[in-house]
Amino acid sequence: MIKIENLTKKIDNKIIFDNLNLDIPSKKITFIIGKSGIGKTTLINLIAGFTKKDSGKITFFDENGSEIKKPLVDVVFQDFNLITNISSENNILIANNVINRLLDPKELEQQAKYVSIETRQLKQNVNNLSGGEKQRIAILRSLSRDSDFILLDEPTGNLDFENGISVFENLKNIAKNKTVLVVSHNLEFAKKYADKIIRIEKGKISEENIDKTEENLANNNEKNSQLVSFKSSSYSKIAKIKQELKTGLLLTLADYKSKWVSTILFVILFLTSIFGALLFAVLNLNISASNSLKINEYQLDSVLVSKKSERNLTTFTDNEINNLREKNKTIKKITPFFTLPLLSFEYNDKRRLGAPIDYIDESKFFKNRFNFDQRNLIGRNIENIDEVIISKELATQFDIKEPKEQEIAVLTGPKDKKTLKVVGINNLVNAKKLNLTFLHHKFGENIELQKSKNRELENSQSSQSKKIEPIILRLYFENNNLENNIDNFIENNKEYGIDSSLKGITKLTYDLQNFINLIVGAILIVFIAVLLIQTIFYTKNLTDSKIKLIGILKALRAKTWQIFLYHWLNIIIISFLILVINLSVSLPLIPKIYIWILGEDAIYPSISQIVILIFIIWIAMFFIISFIYLLISWFNYKKPVTKLLKFDHF
């Protein structure tokens, strides 16, 4: 039963109801009859709580006469207000999910027969149903929610006569265990089906009770006297979460279908903006990753160390070398240079003066360092002091196609030569664009030792030669935190002259980065600005298209957090899709783009750096877009149901 006491309502300074008093009995059909604009729809809005009353009281009672504090009141609207782009069945299931009811779809199919709804119609998209079918689906939706109070606003307004009869025949059955209130201007249907008729005319109320005792007794023996009853399954937390997600996904997919063009445009802008922001951030990184092969190829993990002296070349003692090693634990290997890194070679009457060289040895360090793939490095590593890996430049000049232990001479003095066997050809170019020839460092020591003996003989000095000491040291560092390792060494050993290829490359890289950042930054600003503008338009467009959905969910008594979750799920799904795409695309592409832009393939951002940046940028953009989206949505949500569903007429 619904009891209305001293109800007053004014709209736009027009008094609609003034101290209205009404009783709407339970288990009966009550009709409210009156002309359009007299206040019938307003009364439904007041009873349902869609419109605030100015004064008065509306109380709900169960069949035992006990007051119901929080009644579930369902409204069957004149234009049905079903959720478009989804099936009739999902409309009903969603209506139950929002009030924590879990329906069995098979039971729904069984109970639907009592309101003349077939299984085929339940599975159909509501857009493909007729007006009568939509009306019965709307009624079934209310019944399935086990609401004791069902209000119908002009239920036959959009139906032909035959469908109107079908609807009211179903309502006769429904009213046996519900309180049913019908607002209509159709007096013919009211007289045929009403248990009570309330007439509203120019502020006056008249009531007429219609005795249908004999008719009701006869109907009790008929098939259609069965009561439509739905059972709700127990709701576990997991089942509730599943239902919430299912509801959200159904509504989200319906949104995407209706706005697929703007959704695709939004996804593209979101995706490109994140990728652009990621590229901009990567170009400003302190790069921590490196290509070990390229590091070795370019000799970026090493420095050449010499003593600062304005006079003759100064050598390193054994103690000085040991001190360097002890004080700098990140040094992996020290190779001594007893000559300048330039030597002259001769082969088959061909001579090359001042060819760039480097010193190595047969140790495991260099075996692991050199990758003889027979393309960049052909042959094998040296195994003793009498072997050499010549540069491609030398091989080309001397017409050596492949290393076959050809004997090549090294000019060690005006009249002196030493012969080495060619065991490899180096096709690689280091960071200084030098194609190097590799010799054993002891070979250089022997050269200087021989020169020293020659000088002693020329000067008629004793044959007791002094120890030969290196004039240059090549220091190899640990690759982990390579730049920091080299920086620390340079900072702590300022008394030495230190030549680092890595520092030269990183300086050029950073200079180029600054220039590129200006360009990428400008483009990024434009992209983000366009994204934000598109977000506002997309949000406004989407929320405007969802005004009716928000109104339906509010009318179905969905909680605020549920409505916003379903609404927000659009952005959540798009955002996670973009995150997955960015991770799968950016991880392999960003290092390549970085190398392509800067022209440097030895150093590049690490996978961990890229992943962290993607998440930081994604989270920032996700929250900014979500804030805009939910803020605009909030303005629509605050509107009353009557505004959202556009039936605020009297």
Automatic annotation (TrEMBL):
MF (Gene Ontology): ATP binding
Span of domain ABC transporter: 2-227
SMART domains (alphabetical): AAA (SM00382)
Keyword annotations: ATP-binding, Membrane, Nucleotide-binding, Transmembrane, Transmembrane helix, Transport
Keyword ATP-binding (UniProt): yes
Keyword Glycosyltransferase belongs to the record: no
Transmembrane domains' residue ranges: 260-283, 515-538, 563-590, 610-637
Family the entry assigns: Belongs to the ABC transporter superfamily.
PANTHER family per record: METAL TRANSPORT SYSTEM ATP-BINDING PROTEIN TM_0124-RELATED
Protein name: ATP-binding cassette domain-containing protein
Species annotation: Mesomycoplasma hyopneumoniae (Mycoplasma hyopneumoniae)
